[in-house]
Amino acid sequence: GLERGAKNQFSTFSNFITTINQKKEGIGNRNSPTQLVIPNIKNVRDLPPICLDVRQKQRISIDTLPQELKAPILPEPSLPIQTKTVKDFQDDVEKAKSSGDWKAVHDFYSTTFDSFLEINAAFKKDTNPPFNTIEDSGINAKFVNVVYDALLNTPQDVQKSVLKGIINGLLQEWKGPRTKDDLRAYCILLQNPQFSNTSTYVIYAHLLRQIAALTEADHHFLVHWSKKISQRRFKQLVDRLLQFISLRLFPAKPEEFPPMVKCTWWIPSATKVLALFNAANSLVSPPLISYTDFYNSTLDHIDLMEEYHNWQCYGNSHRFSFCQYPFIISIAAKKVIIQRDSEQQMISIARQSLVDKVSRRQKPDMNMLFLNVKVRRTHLVSDSLDELARKRADLKKKLKVTFVGEAGLDMGGLTKEWFLLLIRQIFHPDYGMFAYHKDSHCHWFSSFKCDNYSEFRLVGALMGLAVYNSITLDIRFPPCCYKKLLSPPIVPCDHNTLVGICDVTLGDLFQIMPELAHGLSELLSYEGNVEEDFYSTFQVFQEEFGVIKSYNLKPNGDKIPVTNQNRKEYVQLYVDFLLNKSIYKQFAAFYYGFHSVCASYALLLLRPEEVEILVCGSPELDMSALQRSTQYEGYQKTDLTIRYFWDVVLGFSLDLQKKLLHFATGSDRVPVGGMADLNFKISKSETSTNWLPVAHTCFNQLCLPPYKNKKELKQKLIIGISNAEGFGLE
Fold first, then answer.
1. Which UniProt keywords apply (predicted)?
2. pLDDT at position 18, please?
3. Which of 725, 717, 715, 626 has its CA nearest to residue 676?
4. Is the bond into 258 cis (omega within 30 degrees of 0)?
5. Letter string b/e over residues 539-572, b meaning 16 or more CB atoms within 10 A of that residue's CB
6. What pLDDT score was predicted for residue 82?
7. How far apart (Å, rounded) are the C-alpha atoms in residues 568 and 421?
8. Are the CB atoms for 649 and 623 separated by under 8 Å?
9. Where are the alpha helices (DSSP H) in 227-330?
10. What pLDDT shows up at residue 319?
């Protein structure tokens, strides 16, 4: 089987799987290669799946061991002598290419990869120092990269010798904890580009299994070493693992792999190793790659609710679920889980209402199946507050809105209009609940003290209802808000537990009050005498209704001067005061309002950035996708006016495209499902072409007169979208 396949293609190594599972006796030295037994694949033993205790480790991507924790340091065995340098190796490769004699290169590869000791001898920076710290792996990354970059361009026998050597290394009988040299070897082997080929997946799976089975302390080292890998190669490693999971779930050629029942541990092992890379990525600021690069869109096509229910039911057992590793699930898939979970809760509560009604021998009323909100336009906020407070038990039913004195039936349009009008009114600066910061273009909670914070609870409930009913809101909260909203993600049973309190940094303040954050940053970098030049204490001042009030950042703060030694503490306490303590009651009410609607274990799956996208939509616009999904009324997509329209819109700047979207839908952001979820419609307006376009934001509908030429259409459209009042929040 080893002789089949074209260049850079390998036959499957399925016939080695039993050999790797069983103990390998009599492993010779590197000069006496192991004779591999080729057993019948039916005799393969099923290995236990590897997964986390979900309730103890909600997110391995975040929960890494403390910096000071070290694995037991074992004495490193003496390494074979390896004197070849990067230049020596490159010279050998060039000579082989020109002469056709690959013996020297073959010997290097077959020797280097024959055992973990040889791997360390070749790629360790210096064979003498132990390199036992988490900050320095001791790996000569440049040499590793050069050797792997050359590997795929060598003859087949060279590439096969590397794979045989890796098998030898994996067959070793391990006794006791791993040494740091073992961890280095694992780190190096993971980077082998041969594992992108499906024919090597059996070997790759066993490598992943051994890494996944390492102790938590060993994982700690691998996480910190991995964050030092270059961005390009880090992305390649992540993509390789994602591809491995996808092809194991949906193989293009099922016969390439052992039967799924014989290798149920493949996917759990790969996912756990991927979690180590996600943890490494979260330790770097800015991250090496975006969190969305860990999404596996293949999972969008599996039974997500079964995964979710397995996670809920067997969380403390060793039953694997992708929900244990939420970083791998895309935002689109998470939205499906949340929507289905919401629908099931809606149905359950509606059914219970029906049963209660029948048990009391009362006539069932279809309205009892919905959250019916009746409001007057002239008393929008107070009526909404009263309705939601009075019908708190019905918040998880399907929402239906009625405006008193109007005959309209709510087919979705009235609900959206209610949201838009409420948000417009509540966030108006004159209302005083939220302050708009022009520098950051976002809103933040007013720190003014009041007797009743119920309106903040209303805003939280509105956000929850929007997520629950798949409505995108035009709200501009900073990312910090969503981080606080998930602190904690599940409402604590003890009402004395603080909620909405999270670790905040100067970076969080920059996103809200950049000018103040810049001033604090200048204080931290000031080279003079802080105490004499700034004459500040651990006391801050805020204006409330024209009165200046002072607050101590710590006990007796007004008597403690800010100095060069304690300025970091001062800045941290100031930021914590602004973003946590000064608005605690306001945000706590907001938090409880949101969770009164959205209380669900599904929130444990979400990052703060993903909650923002669910509430407000994505800022990424794709007008070509909008063109493909647009519906028409009175027009055909081939009509001249429509062709003019799309020529103009596709040529717009991003700013004008956002204005158009805001004009037509009430928001310049896109739902999680993309442009197709907008259900955007262009209708023919029979008015004069002297008129400007008109939009019905409640229905995402644009009414377009049949303009005679492209120039006129562009002129009228720009005037319309640039001067409409809309539902702006400023």
1. Ligase, Phosphoprotein, Transferase, Ubl conjugation pathway
2. 42
3. 626
4. no
5. bbeeeeeeeeeeebbeeebeebebeeebbeebbb
6. 64
7. 43
8. yes
9. 231-249, 266-282, 304-313
10. 83
Rounded-to-10 torsion of CA 123, 127, 133, 137: -10
Q: Would you state the pLDDT for residue 358?
A: 81
Which residue, among 250, 123, 244, has the nearest Cα to 186 in the 3D structure? 123
Q: From CA 120, how far away is CA 126, in angstroms rounded? A: 9
- Residue 488 CA to residue 483 CA, distance in Å, equals 9
Tell me how far CA of residue 355 lies from CA of 334, 351, 352, 362, 370, in angstroms.
Answer: 31, 6, 5, 10, 15
Residue 698 falls in the annotated catalytic set: yes
> What pLDDT score was predicted for residue 558?
93
- Residue 696: other Cβ atoms inside 10 A: 16
Q: DSSP letters of 97-129?
A: HHH---HHHHHHHHHHTSSHHHHHHHHBS-SSS
Q: So what's the pLDDT on residue 410?
A: 61
On the CB side of 519, CA atoms within 13 Å amount to: 7
Residue ranges of the alpha helices (H) in 436-489? 454-468, 479-485
Query: Which stretches in the chain have pLDDT values below 70?
Result: 1-83, 127-130, 173-176, 315-317, 367, 408-412, 724-730
Enumerate residues 6+ apart whose C-beta is below 8 A from 358. 364
How do the domains of the chain map onto residue ranges?
A: 86-294, 617-723
Q: Which of 187, 442, 616, 698 is catalytic?
A: 698
- Position 8 scores a pLDDT of 40
pLDDT digits (tens, 9 = 90+) for 346-367: 788 778 878 887 888 777 777 6
- What span, in angstroms and rounded, lies between the C-alpha atoms of 315 and 309? 9
Q: What is the pLDDT of residues 57-105, one digit of tens each?
A: 333 333 444 444 444 555 555 556 666 889 999 999 999 999 999 999 9
Supply the pLDDT for residue 470.
Answer: 78
Query: What integer pLDDT is reported at residue 58 of this predicted model?
Result: 39
| CA–CA separation, 450 and 399 (whole Å) | 30
Tokens 């799924």 correspond to: 260
Q: Which tokens hold the place of 602?
A: 């599904």
- DSSP per-residue codes, 161-184: HHHHHHHHHHTS---SSPPHHHHH
Measured distance CA(155)–CA(100) in Å, rounded: 10
pTM comes to 0.80
Nearest-angstrom CA–CA distance, 110 and 114: 6
Closest by CA position to 35, among listed 22, 23, 24: 24
- Residue 288 to residue 224: CA distance in whole angstroms: 13
The domain defined by 617-723 carries CATH number 3.40.50.10490:
no
Q: What is the pLDDT of residue 447?
A: 86
Cα→Cα distances 430→379, 435, 451, 580, 725, Å: 16, 9, 18, 24, 17
Cβ contacts of 426 within 8 Å, gap of 6 or more:
381, 433, 434, 455, 458, 459
Which tokens go with 121?
Answer: 């001898």
* Residue 80 near residue 135, CB atoms below 8 Å: no
Is the sign of the CA dihedral 639, 643, 648, 654 positive or negative? positive
Establish whether the linkage from the previous residue to 268 is cis, with ω within 30° of 0.
Answer: no
